[in-house]
Amino acid sequence: MKHVFLIKPLEKDIHPFVSTIKSIMKGKDYDIHFSRFDGHVSEIIAQYEEKARFYSVGGDGFLNQVIQSLIYTTHELVVIPYGTGNDFSRLINISKDPEEILRMSLNRETIKSDVIKMNERYVINTACFGLDALVANTVHDKKGGYVKSLLRNVVGYPFYEVKLEDEEGILYEGQVTLCVIANGRYYGGGFCIAPDAYINDGYMDIVILPKINKWRAPYYLAKILSKSIHKYKKTFVKKVKACTIYTEGSTNIDGEQYEGNVLRIKIVPQAVNIVL
């Protein structure tokens, strides 16, 4: 089977992991491709008609690009973390070290993972619509990562209204602090927002923290860090297969900004062959 490395370059056609690939993959049948423009990854994957094992070398946003062309194919996917958050890798890989993950993957089999479809875009980890989305969308504006982005944005956050409904009616309607639809468990660089989520259970996990007193933000941050925000009495938690979200606030999917105020969302079961 062909091994195909898809890389988000740190500079033009330069990445420190290339030398590691060449060392570990010596004697094996492999290709290395750099993504140079939007949609390039899909063009590369389309070149491989026979079953191949693709390696996503980048962060969650780059992984999102990769999965768009792997849904319901025979291809396999290995996630090599080289981004800001690396939240999906945090869930599926035992190690955080890219070299170790590559070495271990050569002897690993696949499982079939669900994905989420939001309008016409597939989501493998999380989609969020509250302060969490604003934080993720502006995390690269200044140095400091997700926590500093949270502190910058929480003071002026207007608590946007969100309405969430399914075929039976309204599930939630009101102002939100955090609002996430999860296939995975982690977002924001390691915050475990959906501890009960599984990537192969056929459901999405909704977790909504309603409007809070901003000065109590550290308290709720501690709840997330302790993986207990879903147990807080005011938190709305529900597993669903499909829903529609209406929002005027920011939206973020797999760490990347997304434009849209009416979002039709459904689970797509057993859609991607992921190497664990």
From TrEMBL:
All residue ranges annotated as the DAGKc domain in the record: 41-122
Keyword Lipid biosynthesis among record annotations: yes
The entry's keywords: ATP-binding, Kinase, Lipid biosynthesis, Lipid metabolism, Nucleotide-binding, Phospholipid biosynthesis, Phospholipid metabolism, Transferase
GO molecular function, one term: ATP binding
Cofactor(s) needed for function: Mg(2+)
UniProt KW Nuclease keyword: no
GO cellular component, one term: plasma membrane
Family as reported in the entry's similarity comment: Belongs to the diacylglycerol/lipid kinase family.
Protein name (record): DAGKc domain-containing protein
